[in-house]
Amino acid sequence: xxxxxxxxxxxxxxxxxxxxxxxxxxxxxxxxxxxxxxxxxxxxxxxxxxxxxxxxxxxxxxxxxxxxxxxxxxxxxxxxxxxxxxxxxxxxxxxxxxxxxxxxxxxxxxxxxxxxxxxxxxxxxxxxxxxxxxxxxxxxxxxxxxxxxxxxxxxxxxxxxxxxxxxxxxxxxxxxxxxxxxxxxxxxxxxxxxxxxxxxxxxxxxxxxxxxxxxxxxxxxxxxxxxxxxxxxxxxxxxxxxxxxxxxxxxxxxxxxxxxxxxxxxxxxxxxxxxxxxxxxxxxxxxxxxxxxxxxxxxxxxxxxxxxxxxxxxxxxxxxxxxxxxxxxxxxxxxxxxxxxxxxxxxxxxxxxxxxxxxxxxxxxxxxxxxxxxxxxxxxxxxxxxxxxxxxxx
Length: 394
Known about the structure:
- By secondary structure, the protein is α/β, with parallel strands linked by helices.
- It has 2 domains: 217 residues, Glycogen Phosphorylase B (Rossmann fold, 3-Layer(aba) Sandwich); 157 residues, Glycogen Phosphorylase B (Rossmann fold, 3-Layer(aba) Sandwich).
- The protein contains 15 helices and 13 strands.
- Helix 2 links the parallel strand 2 and strand 3.
- Helix 1 crosses helix 15.
């Protein structure tokens, strides 16, 4: 089969959950199908284009500058967002060059399926009715949660963007041939909220062999770890909330409790957490997250805003590391509180769950073992990709 895949970026360096999810599926689809891949080329990341042969038959790089969120150009985009019908998160990726490239490929080839990966490239795909939307989040839910946790002018701006995201995401979900969501919960939200009758779930997978813990045990690097991209607003909010509200409660009983925040491009707000506390480590981008997973007692997912793959939870489970998460952090996953994960939403409850694991090796082993059995039975990448394949080509 011949497949056209349209995304906003290439997949290396692979530092985000959505990239990992796409990469692992495409690697497997590439074995049996002819994958054509269209994405924006980032000259600052030459590895992306250099390694695309790992997952596609042919790549079509498109020149388009997406300003960094700390740049003056992004500030201008935010101002422009006051007057555009598109949400800023989408309009940043609108490109006439990509649209022309997609049009040319569709006219030259007979593709068995066309995929829009994430919502953001959708303005660049001329015939959405022939397209499958691979949607890793319900974007409007994320923006609504931004509104709930913001104040002042930021809250007003987020409310405007949330309304525009709700309208645009709904329009796209109703237009496309199918929507592939990350969970049954997300799929049901798209059906009920948007009227997207053809929304189907494909869960996230995990590479069990890759995350198998070493023997003998790795040296401890931190008591607790928070793993995720630290330039993504939900992770920034979650890390700041945990350090401000939860960690002091833990330290009343365990004053030496250490925390590692492991993820790419930490914004200054996150970097300052380590500057003011010697027991907090902010790593920035790391070549391999496994030593940090293997070197911790528990993984935390303190998200108050968010959506998407929840890949960090499955990776910790595959590494036999117990997880404490908010309900939002584990939203849509087939997990059981107290059985294979701990779920808590208030600062005191979250702290208590962390302490239960820090204080008891047997409880860490019980929770981690149950979690490993869950992902081993249901979430290998090969099994997940077979489900994806059926939806793409049926």
